[in-house]
Amino acid sequence: MSPPREGDRRGLSRELLHPDASVLFGLAAPMALSVLVLACALLTFRAAAFPKWWGIVSVLLGIAMLIPPISWAAMIAFLVWVGVASVLTYTRHTRHGVQRSGRADEHGAVHTASVV
């Protein structure tokens, strides 16, 4: 197969690939990541895995990610959301006295985290 000539439009070009990437980031990624954020909100309300205020923030962010005109701003807020969720997870484990250990229980199973 020969390379496309100057005026030939049959080959792939940057103009054809660019809109697909824009649609993927602009629509599909926020919708897919909103499932993660809303699942975290559900986990917060049902199992008290995070503080209640974090569940409310997660619901608001998840809904914002589903609205296409503002989903680009929600994607920026998602980066902050991931950082805060990481800090909340880390502080929850240290606050409740979870420490790493390699001790085996009476059945021989090794647990990697135990509550003091």
How would you explain this protein's 3D organization?
With 116 residues, this protein is mainly α. The chain has a domain at 19-97. The chain contains three helices and two strands. The chain has a two-stranded antiparallel ribbon with strand order 1-2. It starts with 13 loop residues before the first helix and ends with a strand.
Describe the SSE topology.
Blueprint: H1 14-47, H2 52-65, H3 71-95, E1 98-100, E2 113-115
Antiparallel strand pairs: 1-2
Rg over CA atoms, rounded to whole Å, is: 23 Å
Strand content: 5-15%
> Between the first and last Cα atoms, what is the distance in angstroms?
68 Å
Averaged pLDDT, please?
Answer: 78
Q: State the oligomer.
A: single chain
Strand order of the largest sheet: 1-2
Structural class by helix and strand composition: mainly alpha
Q: Percent range for helical residues? A: 55-70%
Characterize the main sheet: 2 strands, antiparallel
